[in-house]
UniProtKB/TrEMBL annotation:
Catalytic activity field: octadecanoyl-CoA + 2 Fe(II)-[cytochrome b5] + O2 + 2 H(+) = (9Z)-octadecenoyl-CoA + 2 Fe(III)-[cytochrome b5] + 2 H2O
Taxonomic lineage from the root: Eukaryota, Fungi, Dikarya, Ascomycota, Pezizomycotina
Regions that span the bilayer: 38-58, 65-86, 179-200
Organism expressing this protein natively: Aspergillus steynii IBT 23096
Superkingdom assignment: Eukaryota
Topology class, membrane: Multi-pass membrane protein
EC supergroup of this enzyme: oxidoreductase
Function field: Stearoyl-CoA desaturase that utilizes O(2) and electrons from reduced cytochrome b5 to introduce the first double bond into saturated fatty acyl-CoA substrates.
Name of the protein described by the UniProt record: Acyl-CoA desaturase
Sequence similarity: Belongs to the fatty acid desaturase type 1 family.
Cofactor annotation remark: Expected to bind 2 Fe(2+) ions per subunit.
Keywords of the record: Electron transport, Fatty acid biosynthesis, Fatty acid metabolism, Heme, Iron, Lipid biosynthesis, Lipid metabolism, Membrane, Metal-binding, Oxidoreductase, Transmembrane, Transmembrane helix, Transport
CDD domains, per the entry: Delta9-FADS-like
GO BP terms in the entry: unsaturated fatty acid biosynthetic process
Length: 458
């Protein structure tokens, strides 16, 4: 069924099945309120604002403050150890009591159901930084932190992921079906009950351990989507945005080693060094000792190191590319030997070493071995002199020399070393991933393996 183009402008009787999602229309002064996800605005901005206002009247008791911090860790770990590392990534397995606990306290963090959260997070990993990433940092830091929830998103835009395992988990299903009840019970009633029954501070429990604690847990864990894709180093891969930083780790209960995490998502750890802050990892490990968690997954150190070495290599390549290694040999003009000798005779300070001609005119006065020595090589084949005949030049000297090269002597002429190299095919060079030649110490073209003894050096 295809409509003629003219029909498209006419009003139709009945609903249009291809209705455009509000997120795919331009934001204007008339329709902006339709773009806003008001339910989320209530949960992540409205209720916290109400809590802040209430806090002006409700005094904060010490016991309630301590309880709020403890409950902050419980609910925060519900997200990091539960929603994230258990359900989104299956980086370990948990026995039923622990799964129920994590589904409960995770619900108390008020960040959506496990099913909804894990699905979005799997899309985030699969389509990182693309349009299908539900909280792509490429759309801005604020978008990745809050904007993606505050503004309506077209659910069809989010990348597809497999959540069949979550659909088979009765705890996940139960929590998804009873999500609002879970939020009210674990987000507000439980923290209020503990403070109320414990030390009579009902209202304080509600405001501080309930509402304001929700606000802090939300903002902290949202940082995994924003800060962890914006601040820090990329020791494993720098092609995408995830980064490692201790500040993010401190804020997010250890989720701050996010470059590692995106490379090795099914590892139950985020921090691999003992001194890095990852309380989520420590907690999972304790649960294992208690028999509540098992099958903790880890990538082999060998695999982790490979990634690190490759990234280091890439950084070295970038550093190397910024340095002057001299004109590449294949881009140098070819000179006849006689032409070389003639030019040197006519006052140009040319020195041929290993078949490569160098213009040392401006360097003669700076030569550490003195003017006379360098002058003695001009217009000659100075290969042997340079490589030990007179002085066994340093690695730095070979490097410096390469920046002065201006030509190569035509093959099959006077320069024996160059000839030999061409014959043996040893002019094949190691190149980095951008095709730049890698010149290792001792492998400069002017360097010959054995010092050449000459008559006057003997
Ligand atoms: Zn991420
Ligand atoms: Zn993740």
């Amino acid at each position: 069924m295809s409509a003629k183009p003219a029909d498209a402008t006419r009003p139709r009787a009945g609903g249009d099945t291809k209705k455009v999602h509000i997120a795919d229309t331009a934001l204007t002064r008339q329709n902006w309120y339709k773009h806003v996800n008001w339910l989320n605005v209530t949960f992540i901005l409205g209720i916290p604002l109400y809590g802040c206002i209430q806090a002006l009247w409700v005094p904060l008791q010490m016991k309630t403050a301590i309880w709020a911090v403890i409950y902050y860790f419980f609910t925060g770990l519900g997200i990091t150890a539960g929603y994230h590392r258990l359900w989104a990534h299956c980086s370990y397995s948990a026995r039923l009591p622990l799964r129920i606990w994590l589904a409960a306290v995770g619900g108390g963090a008020v960040e959506g159901s496990i099913r909804w959260w894990a699905r979005g997070h799997r899309a985030h990993h699969r389509y990182t930084d693309t349009d299908k990433d539900p909280y792509s940092v490429r759309k801005g830091l604020l978008y990745s932190h809050l904007g993606w929830m505050v503004m309506k998103q077209n659910p069809k835009r989010i990348g597809r992921t497999d959540i069949s395992d979550l659909n088979e988990d009765p705890v996940v299903q139960w929590q998804h079906r009873n999500y609002i009840q879970t939020v009210i019970a674990m987000g507000l009633i439980v923290p209020m009950l503990v403070a109320g029954l414990g030390w009579g501070d009902w209202w304080g429990g509600f405001v501080y351990a309930g509402i304001l604690r929700i606000f802090f847990v939300q903002q902290a864990t949202f940082c995994v989507n924003s800060l962890a894709h914006w601040l820090g180093d990329q020791p494993f891969d720098d092609r995408n945005s995830p980064r490692d930083h201790v500040i993010t780790a401190l804020v997010t209960l250890g989720e701050g080693y996010h470059n590692f995490h995106h490379e090795f998502p099914s590892d139950y750890r985020n921090a691999i060094e003992w001194h890095q802050y990852d309380p989520t990892k420590w907690t999972i490990w304790i649960w294992k000792q208690m028999g509540l968690a098992y099958d903790l997954k880890k990538f082999r150190a060998n695999e982790i190191e490979k990634g690190r070495v490759q990234q280091l290599q890439k950084k070295i390549d970038q550093k190397r590319a910024r340095l002057d290694w001299g004109v590449p040999l294949d881009q140098l003009p070819v000179m006849e030997w006689d032409d070389y000798v003639d030019q040197a005779k006519n006052g140009r300070g040319l020195v041929a070493i290993a078949g490569v001609v160098h213009d040392v005119t401006d360097f003669i006065k700076d030569h550490p071995g003195g003017k006379a020595m360098i002058n003695s090589g001009i217009g000659k084949d100075a290969t042997a002199m340079f490589n030990g005949g007179i002085y066994y030049h340093s690695n730095a000297a070979h490097n410096l020399l390469s920046t002065m090269r201006v030509g190569v002597i035509r093959g099959g002429c006077e320069v024996e070393i160059w000839k030999r190299a061409q014959k043996e095919g040893t002019t094949e060079y190691v190149r980095d991933e951008t095709g730049q030649r890698i010149v290792r110490a001792g492998e400069q073209v002017t360097k010959i393996p054995e010092p050449i003894p000459t008559a006057d050096a003997a």
